[in-house]
Amino acid sequence: MKKEIILTKEQENKLEEIAMAYSIEIMERGGLDERHNDREDFPEISIWAIKSIMEEAYKAGLEDGKKMV
Question: Where are the alpha helices (DSSP H) in the chain?
């Protein structure tokens, strides 16, 4: 069974900041909040942007983890 991970507001804001820095589509849309609209909730985004977003989010998680130790 998969354990649910609950992010703090600060962590959610950091992920949104990262996504908006690497994707103009997400930046122009105004963030990662759900809009319940297919056109707005499924933006066209390049694979390299997704890769960069994931790498930066991973680095942010590592840094956050170091603070907890």
Answer: 9-22, 24-29, 38-41, 47-68
Verdict on whether the full-model pTM lies above 0.85: no
User: In this structure, is residue 1 part of a structural domain?
Assistant: no
- State the Cα–Cα distance between residues 15 and 56, nearest whole angstrom: 9
| Residue 21 near residue 13, CB atoms below 8 Å | no
Any domain includes 33: yes
How far apart are alpha carbons 44 and 65 in whole angstroms? Answer: 31
Radius of gyration, alpha carbons of the chain = 13
pLDDT at residue 25, as a whole number = 93
Rounded distance between C-alpha atoms, residue 58 and residue 69, angstroms: 17
